[in-house]
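Late entry, written up from scratch paper. The run itself happened at the end of the previous shift, but nothing got recorded in the book at the time, so transcribing now.
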Amino acid sequence: MHLSIKKLYTEISSLITDFVQLLGRLEIKSKAKIIEFLNQQETGRICSIDKDGFPQIIPMNFVYTNDAIYMHSHPRGEKLENITKNPKVGFEVDQSLEFLPSYFTSPTDASQADTLYVSVVIKGKASLVSDPKEKTMVLNELMKKYQPEGGYEKLTMHMPVVEEVAIIKVIPVTIRGKYKIGQHMDKKTRLAIAKKILERKTPTAKNTVRMMGVKITKDGLEISEEPSW
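Output as recorded:
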């Protein structure tokens, strides 16, 4: 009995170690990759606390620049009232890359279903920008992000719109990024999953396979790089 308990303890310890190691592999360690991901996404979600203590989550256009998240807003509204009373906020951005059906790895076990994804969660302090120069910079950065093809004149700080809109600034206290794009798989498994993703023919399949570090060639699939962020 003593030996059985010792064996069970060893197996549990091994499982815990494997789980902790997996969590480490899922964490984005490169700040540059986090910033790159943030500015590739169109929508982020800011969470503030309302007067009754409830979290309020609002989807927003945003840009990350000068080590801060910036959003433009109507000059009046509940989220601005929340931020004025309590500047502590959350901000989240995510991209669901690909759902992996359970039958990719098991003919019957539903628990094998998985999702490839990237997400960033920020805890920070929000404020309303009053400096016209900073507001103008933010509005131009937003235009650059969302209308990169141009076709407009840059805003100047003397334009009425600069005064008419509110700019929310979130200075991060903590930034955590997580991703699952195949970096937790061995090369053989990653290639097999990439093949099945392509066979499923979803609209995102080719982009997902590329992010997994898998290259499509005339001779088939091959590992082009390690998806290490």
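Residues 132 and 158 are 8 Å apart (CA to CA).
(Scratch paper discarded after transcription.)
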